[in-house]
Amino acid sequence: MHSTRTPRSPSRTLVAATGLVAALALTATACGGGDDDTAGGSGSGATATATVTGGGGDSGDGKVRLPAGVADKLKRHGIDVDDWAEGGWRDWGKDKWLSAAKDFVNPMIEGLWKPERMKSAKEADKTVTAKDAAADQGVSDPAPEPVEAVAEKTPYHENAAPVGKVFFDSPEGSMVCSGTVIKDVNHPGKSDLVWTAGHCVHAGSGGGWYRNIAFVPAYNDLGESEEQLRDATSAEIAPYGNWWADWASTSKEWIAGGSETGGAGAAYDYAVLHVTPEQGSKSLEETVGGALDVDFSAPSASEVASMGAWGYPAAPPYNGLKMFKCLDRPGRLSLSPALPTMYRIGCTMTGGSSGGGWFRVVGGRTKLVSNTSIGPSDNTWLAGPQLGAEAEAIYRNMSRTYGGR
Prior knowledge:
Helix content: 10-25%
Shape: globular
CATH topology: Thrombin, subunit H
Radius of gyration: 20 Å
């Protein structure tokens, strides 16, 4: 995408970025308790599960674990649970592709996300056109200069423990995004919540919920190459296991207006997952040793000196195996006068980084303030939604209703 750029002071950007790097000790910061963490009762979500045994192959090891009530929900929509593990989930017919917020279902198929299947997943990209990005230049700031993405230090669990990859199946095949472990205000120290993009869980207008959604924290923890991972075991590529989403929530604006290029839902392109381990019983936060608070104050871009975006870019020149980050001073991006302004930073990360958290330092603590949503076809910048009251309502409902599962 071609656009007019206004040069910025290199020294100013460097100072801000350097300060953010020093403060963004994601693991250390995340391990402490949050200021607004409160003790709370368990959620109202059902905890009973049922196991259905089917075939193996690409559908996994043949065991499907269902939260209570899911089998009945599938049956109401004409979906045979017994066929699900045999590959019935591949039926994306309009009558089988559930779309409404209340209709989310994601039965766990044990063994489905094997190392090779993870490595073959394609990036879930949202690219805006030059026309889209120039829709409201009276509000948008000039496009930022590109910021070269920098590889995160390894092992990831010591440098960016809350960051990981989100895998899912779509009508186009297996796909991948990025995500972040976030704190649960009603279950301090024992969160099972993950923040990502709406387009990583739901196709938006005219589509429905994706399937087989799973989160893998600290994916490829040692940052090994494709050659080194040729015969990698599950423990090497997913050291903290696979965590399946037993519930997901995204904005009503994304469901109604999201599209392949972001669309009218881009400014609301965020989602929260509640996950459960494929193996084990500890919470996600206890397992990875960290989680981040979410900043819902939606500060204007002019109030923020620096933001950092983390993720696993998968489109060339990246291959999705390593974690990268970009640090920059944010500007404003407006796609329409009727939509909230989005944050925009210079960054060369490509598709696959979608859903990855954007972090800033608030009172000496690192908090998630946005997530990667859209970018141009020339991969020079990224944009993410401001997280205000609508996003906080989704988060608090997830914590209240599903956090105690």
